Amino acid sequence: MADGTHAVKITRAASKTSQNDNEMLQLFLEDLLTGEVAKTNLVFSPKTGFTIDTCFKSLNLEMPEDGEFFADKIHFRGRTGFIRTETEETAEYGVQIRVRWISKKTAVKDDPRLEAIPESEPLMLPALAAGAVPQTPKPPIGLLTP
Fold it and tell me: Confidence class of residue 100 from pLDDT cuts 50, 70 and 90?
């Protein structure tokens, strides 16, 4: 995916574990204007709270005000969001695309064509009672405190 501002649709999401044993989602993105594809990881850890917050806002995912919530790949598939990408190269990982989630308002300032892209409808993520485990066939992906 070229450097710049993009409106993307999440075409697929996969549950993974990061190198530091944190739960994460691997998100497969498709640029809605060019058809270019990329993937990014959304890691659930105490250090990634700002990234998670901006990603959720861009995708119009809402967190319950009190307590923990459950975020699974089904909550992400098909949603539209806005990102800014930048190619960077490091000795450890080689060439990578850095993805920053942004609001539609910010995206439209960068590229007025994105005004025509509709945002996803708001979706409230399910809340968990204190200490509860979600009733799903697979283990939870992200248990966070807002």
Answer: very high
**Around Cβ 42, how many Cβ atoms within 10 Å?**
22
The tokens describing 142, both together, are 């992200």
Domain ranges of the chain: 4-112
Question: Is 137 exposed, middle or buried (CB count within 10 Å of its CB: 0-12, 13-18, 19+)?
Answer: exposed
Q: Backbone phi, then psi, for 145, in 5-degree steps?
A: -105, 120
User: For 48, which DSSP code?
Assistant: G
Count of residues for the chain? 146
Residues 29-50 have pLDDT tens digits of 999 999 999 999 998 888 888 8
Collect all residues with Cβ–Cβ distance below 8 Å to 113 and sequence separation of at least 6. 33
Q: Token pair of 144, please?
A: 């966070």
What pTM, to 2 d.p., does this model score?
A: 0.82
Q: Per CATH, which fold does 4-112 belong to?
A: OB fold (Dihydrolipoamide Acetyltransferase, E2P) (2.40.50)
Proportion of the chain in helix, strand, coil states, percent, rounded to 5? 20, 45, 35
